[in-house]
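Example 3.2
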Amino acid sequence: MERLNGKKSFRKAISSLKIKIIDLYIIKKFLGTFFFCLVLILTIAVVFDFAEKIDNFMEKSAPWKAVVFDYYLNFIPYFATLFAPLFVFIAVIFFTSRMAVNTEIIAILNSGMSFRRMMWPYFLSAVVIGGMIFYLTNFMIPHANLVRLDFEDKYYRPRGRRINIENVHRQVFKNIYVYIESYNPVYLRGRNFKIEKFDNHGRLISKLSAPSVTWDSVSGKWSALNYVHREIKGSEEILTRGSKIDTTLTIRPSDLARDASFVGTMNWSELDNYIDLLKMQGSDEIKVFLIEKHRRIVSPFAVFILSLIGVSLSSRKIRGGIGMNIGIGLALSFSYIFFQQFASQFSLKGNLSPMVAMWIPNMIYLVIALVLYKLAPK
């Protein structure tokens, strides 16, 4: 009998999740308002960005076709996914407040639909937007960023920033560090090259120095010219000199020319592979890439949390109307972005795990969402 009642309850629960007319109405409102806000804010962003950079475009004689297709068509999806959770929050606050003011929420609840069941179309809409954000961020936008950054190198930023790279420090393996005083990516040549190896206690055990180092594209190795190798064994030092020696470094010329924006040009599999390489090297740079990896996972989940906050906050008719709800919503959404940036910096500068740092804002705002959900009109 209990099993029969359990089956009936399960079938009833499944039946209640079938898409109804009111669900389609809310989904249409949600997605329609979201894309309207997206287009509106993106238009403003493009206008301001163009006004800021038009002098550089004209000075560098940038072709208008490249400006439109190589830059702005790749800038738009990047900017859209970067602030998509904020746009979702604004959209939910706006159209749900309108429904509350027009007493549509009251009518829905009085018809027998529970507040929890009313969340179902919001959840489905969040799945669509969250899935879109995850796909774009991990598979489409990295290539778009590559094209956009290449355009900026040619027509916006001075190209000299990638020539004569100064003071290159890299940890290539555990306890093995490389230093190049000056590196020219055009000629693939570095000046004042050093490799230092330490033991687990931080004591220097060997050092290779050379006035210059070059990349041999045939062998795929770095060659140190006129090198001096110093090996320390206890109190004894062994010096070796030579005209040329090939190294077994795991870094390539493209690695030395990379800047902070490089992490955004890697798709999901490339990012994973590069993280594995940095783990093997024991590099401190790994935090930047782990933060990016977890940020790409966290952002889609933020859509669900901010949607729940938005519905719970704006489903009640309050004094001040829509403007009050939008004001509170903007304050919460911008504080979420602030917490996310603060947590990432705390991870980079401190000992906080990148995964924990990226999930802390979601956990905090999930608690806020559940509290507001309990206080929402039922």
